[in-house]
């Protein structure tokens, strides 16, 4: 299988902070990126903003156009619209590697907490909605603030990459590795995605307590 | 509240690898430690073995004696006996800080996976069983192999400490900090313990893939 440098990376929800931050880092690393959004116009604006900031080959389309044009597609969409958006893109995403980075979280006066997902996790919901795609899960704990800050040239983070398709998780690990400082680490099968998504609630609690933009590193690897 | 150096640390299930490894490190750091086990004799044997290896003030008792004598009690018991053991020690544990480090996991031919716990997590089960104790959760991802290896003088690990009682989580963070290399980091409320326990399945998957004894570090804190 060809490496990520020969592929087009689509970012569904690429006008949101997490998607936009990753799109920026991938464009900066020289990958071909297509931002997707419900509004093609807003996607084009975000792409133009990134191109102006870091250069690179980055364009914008509506989500369906993004999914159709890309070889590898990151779903960086809100949990609220996760099911409907993916279902509507089933045909465009067939045969492609899909990376789910969605964290189903709720917030109340006690802070963040994980939501219960009938399928077990957002990633498993994606897998059930997209039986013809190669679904992986990764990029859950990236700090959007850090990604957007181009003065941060080394992003201190290990990205856990989950999935049952070895070749697909290897490609997504490579997609993590292209961001300076970031390492993609295999993190287990998709059935163990829930806790990785839910851990974002703990990361947010850490950020609040320590006024940090916390990330994870895996030691001894 | 007095620091951990003035307290007696009890380790329920202290003859198992995780409990024994932590008991060793705490005894080595100069804390007063009581190992608990179903069998007082096996607890005394484990304590004598640790004392011979690293010295320190460490003794053994049955679990009830351990819980009664200690000020801070680590529950390092198998998930299978979690409910019954804690229920039987309810009186001995009243008024004390209890640290739950239990990971409810299952294993099948696809590897490790998180079990569903009716209360949400082992820690929340402990909280519901021990209403008069101050329940926290921590030390989920420690490598028993690394702890037992006294040639490892710096344990490369951040310990996430969860709980709703700020003073109790501060004490347990200090209990982590006494092990050279280890940092105790506040990791959120007890309702967010499930994903920290379950993440041990991912850590095991990482260990298998990379032939490592993986741990976590939190960046930017």
TrEMBL record, chains A, B:
InterPro entries reported for this sequence: NAD(P)-bd_dom_sf (IPR036291), NpdG (IPR010185), P5C_Rdtase_cat_N (IPR028939), STEAP_metalloreductase (IPR051267)
UniProt entry tagged with the keyword Transcription: no
A GO-annotated cellular component: plasma membrane
A biological-process GO annotation: copper ion import
GO molecular function annotations of the record: coenzyme F420 binding; cupric reductase (NADH) activity; ferric-chelate reductase (NADPH) activity; NADP binding; oxidoreductase activity, acting on NAD(P)H
Domain Pyrroline-5-carboxylate reductase catalytic N-terminal: residue ranges: 8-104
The entry's keywords: Oxidoreductase
UniProt key word Oxidoreductase: yes
NCBIfam families reported in the protein's UniProt record: npdG
Protein name: NADPH-dependent F420 reductase
Record organism: Haloactinomyces albus
């Amino acid at each position: 299988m060809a490496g990520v440098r020969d592929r087009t990376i689509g970012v569904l929800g690429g006008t949101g902070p997490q998607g936009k931050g990753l799109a920026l880092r991938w464009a900066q690393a020289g990958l071909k990126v297509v931002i997707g959004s419900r509004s093609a116009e807003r996607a084009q604006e975000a792409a133009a903003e990134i191109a102006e900031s870091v250069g690179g080959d980055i364009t914008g389309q509506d989500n369906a156009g993004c999914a159709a044009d890309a070889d590898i597609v990151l779903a960086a969409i809100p949990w609220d619209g996760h099911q409907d958006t993916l279902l509507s893109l089933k045909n465009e995403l067939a045969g492609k590697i899909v990376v789910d980075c969605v964290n189903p979280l709720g917030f109340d006066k006690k802070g963040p907490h994980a939501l219960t997902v009938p399928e077990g996790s957002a990633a498993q919901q994606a897998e059930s909605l997209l039986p013809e795609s190669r679904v992986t899960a990764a990029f859950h704990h990236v700090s959007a603030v850090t990604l957007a800050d181009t003065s941060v040239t080394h992003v201190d983070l290990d990205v856990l990459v989950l999935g049952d398709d070895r070749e697909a998780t290897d490609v997504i690990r490579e997609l993590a590795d292209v961001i300076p400082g970031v390492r993609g680490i295999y993190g287990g099968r998709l059935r163990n995605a829930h806790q990785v998504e839910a851990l974002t609630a703990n990361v947010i609690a850490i950020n609040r307590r320590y006024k940090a933009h916390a990330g994870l590193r895996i030691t001894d690897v």
